[in-house]
Amino acid sequence: MHPFRIVTYNIAHGRGMLSPYQGLNTHASIRRNALKIARLLERLKPDVVALQEIDEDSHWNGRLNLLEYIREHAHMPYAVMGVNSQRAGDKPLRYGNAILSRHRIAAWENISFEHSEIGGKGFLFAEINAGHHHVVPLVNLHLAFASRRARLAQAAALSEYLGIKYQHRQADWMIPPILCGDFNNSSRGRDATAALFGYFQRHGQYTLHPEDEGTFPAPLPSRTLDFVFLPPACRLPKSAVLRSYLSDHRPVVVDFRLPGARSH
Q1: Measured between alpha carbons, how far is 8 from 10 in angstroms, rounded to an integer?
Q2: Which is the CATH superfamily of the domain at 2-258?
Q3: How far is residue 164 CA from its own chain's centroid?
Q4: What residue segments make up the domains of the chain, in order of their start?
Q5: Distances from the Cα of 160 to the Cαs of 50, 88, 184, in angstroms?
Q6: Fewer CB within 10 A of the terminal residue: the chain, N end or C end?
Q7: SS3 call for 211
Q8: Which strand ranges, in their side-by-side order, compose the sheet holding 48-55?
Q9: Chain-centre distance of CA 234, in angstroms?
């Protein structure tokens, strides 16, 4: 069995914990905070990082490619970006979700839930080639903040997408998909997290991480919004929510072991 570590982290455009809006930050302060995020990830030595609210080319940070900046300073060799909000003009925006990986990303696809200049949400699907014939399917998801109805519709769209992927790609996967990201609702009650967890349970006894520890807001977390869903083939899972003040969310770290390589 092979050890594997995933981090999921909403980095809030690199603005840090105290600023309510990244447009109020200086370009230099965002760059400094992004470097601290990169150094945190470097210390954690993850196999894969799922990032939400990360910019590729936006005016509020001086058009710094945050993904490339963090990738370079965290010494992660591979990265893909899923843009869910973009705007041209004098104040351009390009941001969404991203995946960093120590392993080759064999294939990926981004799905936006709507076309938006700002505040758009979506999910990034990737197949990670973890070596020894391990193809690990992973989804990095960011759901709507303000509307339960929107979140449930987005969860249904993701379930439909994965149903098609199962039909065409399941034979090539070592495990069913891992799902992680910012769900913008807890695991309790009738909302999208519970709906998605129910969907994934059709493919075995998934586990949800963390179970109770809060991830938001970072100074004194009272809500758990950030999760990793692991399929049953991921053995000996354990998770931690890190005390970190580089965003308004805290990062979630999940360790587990992948099954042995499939023979071909």
Answers
A1: 7
A2: Endonuclease/exonuclease/phosphatase (3.60.10.10)
A3: 21
A4: 2-258
A5: 21, 31, 20
A6: C
A7: coil
A8: 78-87, 93-101, 48-55, 2-10, 252-258, 235-241
A9: 18
Residue with tokens 């807890």: 186
> Three-state DSSP class for 256?
strand
Between the alpha carbon of residue 18 and those of residues 62, 93, 219, the distances in Å are 20, 22, 9
140: closest CA among 252, 56, 222, 247?
Answer: 252
Convert the pLDDT of each residue in 150-165 to its tens digit: 999 999 999 999 999 9
The span from the CA of 209 to the CA of 230, in Å, is 8
**What DSSP string runs through 68-102?**
HHHHHHHT--EEEEEEEEEE-SSS-EEEEEEEEES
Confidence of residue 50 (pLDDT cuts 50, 70, 90): very high
- In whole angstroms, how far apart are CA 229 and each of 12, 39, 176? 22, 26, 10
Of 130, 158, 131, 132, which is closest to residue 143 (Cα–Cα)? 158
Whole-angstrom distance between the N-terminal and C-terminal Cα of the chain?
17
Side chain identity at 51, as an amino acid letter? L
Q: Is the predicted pLDDT of residue 24 greater than 90, yes or no?
A: no
Paired tokens of 146: 């303000």
